[in-house]
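Final paragraph of the annual report: two paired records, presented back to back.
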Amino acid sequence: MRRRSLSPKRQAEFDEWIQRWGIDVEGPLLDWADVFGGDGPTRRDVVLDVGFGHGESTIEMAAAEPHLHVVGVEVHTPGVVTVLDAIEHRGLDQIRVVHGDLLPFLDRVAPESLAVVRIFFPDPWTKRRNFHRRLVGPDVVAALTDRLRVGGTMHLATDIADYAQSMRQVCDAEPRLSGGAIERPDWRPLTRFEQRGLDAGRSSSDLLYTRVIPSQF
């Protein structure tokens, strides 16, 4: 956890807002209707936004897609409080925030309950000795696919070429997924992080996969 210190005012806001809009990492299996207050056919699709960083994409995409519910997962405290601020002051009450790690939280996510999984610019761990720390590996992709409904999508993006290749190999090897590389979509916001990569001469790679095979019971 990167629980960086906040100013006293910001810390007080964080403490208040996380109680209102946060989801605990650990606990029983979640029912999205209970989490978001939806009911029956009016229930909206749920997006899992993994590692949203400073929150720019999460905020802008939620504003552009009010028909979707969003669950954002992030360990970076300033990014979490930025998203909480947007929920409070931009009326984005279709967002919920998990301040913690993805893997233990997945125990709370029911199989085939997600419409979309987004993993934009995860920590690249660029030194070869740290490649094992990269998030997008076979076990994580399998666990996320378990929770993605048939017809649901997994969208990944990175500006590290060897990570993009690794992501594609992992996703191609998951038999329940079909897809591959796509052109950068106009609707994915350009964040400060991505712009720094472009300024440094790196190009972004987007991968889009669809779950095509249901669970075998």
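The closing record of the year follows.
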Amino acid sequence: MEYGSGFDSRDEPPPSAPGVWTVGELNARLKSLLGGMGRIAVEGEISGLKRPASGHLYFDLKDKTRGTESVVHCAIWRSQVARALKGPLEEGAKVVAHGRLDVYAPRGSYSLIVDRVEARGMGALLEELERLKAKLSADGWFDRARPVPRLPRMIGVVTSRDTAAFQDVLRTRSLRWPLYPLRIAHTPVQGPGAAQSIADAIRRIDASGVELILVCRGGGSLEDLWAFNELPVAEAIHAASVPVVSGVGHETDLTLCDLVADWRAHTPTDAAQHVIPDRRALEDALERQGQYLIDVIDRVIEQRERELQRLASVRVLRDPSWITGDRQLACERLGKQLVRAGAERLRRGGERLELNSSMLRGHAPGVQLERYAARIAQVGQRLVEPTSRRLEALESRLALAARGLESTSPFAVLERGYALTETESGEVVHDAAQLAQGDVIRTRFAKGSATSRVESTEPAQPADGSEA
């Protein structure tokens, strides 16, 4: 809502003519200029309140600015009294009057034509409300939007049973679904202590087992709706275990209750239309769905009938004996094929058996042994002949060598009468100088040996008889 903040005659162009104004022209000009300021809000103290029989209200707003008392005349027309006033006007009360300036040309006086009066101090409350909105928005209280049940078993209504809003809800229920289950939590919706009472009613109805809560109140001034802007109501809505629908005031009214609720309606009637199901619409939908289901069933039955008719014309179902006849012929044909295949397989198996038997006979162990024995005999004969010849040659050479050995053998010498003398240690004695008196010697003969002791030794004599 915008209000004019002031007026400066320098903003208007000077009159083009005439140079001298008539009183009527001046008043008309002032009326135009003051009307151009639009709606304004004036704060002051009520003075000279009058209530004539016409039903209009007249009073002055006065205040003191820098020690000077200023007064502006105000009027509320009879048609606007009920809407402009939310409580009785009292002499000396501090108020803010909203309206437009108007000039009464016959007297050349201007008045503020008032269409709304608020108690002084609402500006501070609005500032506090904006701070509270900012805080709750930062905390995420305005972001929750739980879905509203389509067919709640029980709807809880938080309002005053004496208000037009509750009558709107009941009227809407009668139109949409008569006797739909509602449970009311009666509470004052304006005045001192109304906010806490509304919060208690919300908690009470929430604990009663409802599936949806409707908080509603008809339109009114900002003061009338102020209880729905207080923190206790917002806290109760935020803590509710079920969705909350707000239907407070008119479409232009926006309260803290609307922002915290899960869904906001423009009016109580709009809220009731949103939460109370439309029985007729549901019945129509059920009828449409039922008809659709019947159509689907009919189509399925028709399809099944066509399928049965088609199957009834199939030979296998029309004449079941045909199945056994065809199967018997098929079995006979397969039996013949099986016999032929078996005989052919036996024949081929016999041929393979005969072939394998002949192969086995050729590889029998006895036959193999005879074959190997013949080969061994043949090879043995070939080995015996060169071996015999080799043995004969070796025997001839051995005999020749034996004769040579025998001719040079010491034993042959011994056979001729010679003897072999050895010391006690086994050393062959070649020279008498090897022996000393008393040595034991052993003499070997061609047959046997003898042991003796040396009595004396004689040195060898030269071949020519000279002494050595």
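Confidence is low (pLDDT under 50) at residues 1-17. This concludes the annual technical report; the extension proposal builds directly on these records.
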